[in-house]
User: What shape does this take?
Amino acid sequence: MVSPLFEKKEKITRKEFRDVFRKKNPLLPALGRRLIEMEERTKIEERLFGKEPMALASKDQYKKLISKMEVDKYRAKYLSQKGLIDKKVRFLKKLGGV
Assistant: This one.
């Protein structure tokens, strides 16, 4: 069971997010690769924290990131892209306890 990031804290640091995000990133069984590759994880991290190395993120910012990703899902052209974004959104919701 994944322990939610925001279970006991209002805000998390970039390092806490990165550590949990790297450890809990599941494999996609059919493809034999990670759900979210390193480049994509870096992009998600930058969308959440910005460019500041010692930034903090609140639960509201995390929810906003997820809602932006859901908008990206509906803007995606292909069903396969929509499915992959949906898996990422569900994983991030579970990871954050949102």
Notes: The longest helix spans residues 79-96. Residues 11-96 form one domain. Helices lie at 14-23, 38-49, 59-75, 79-96.
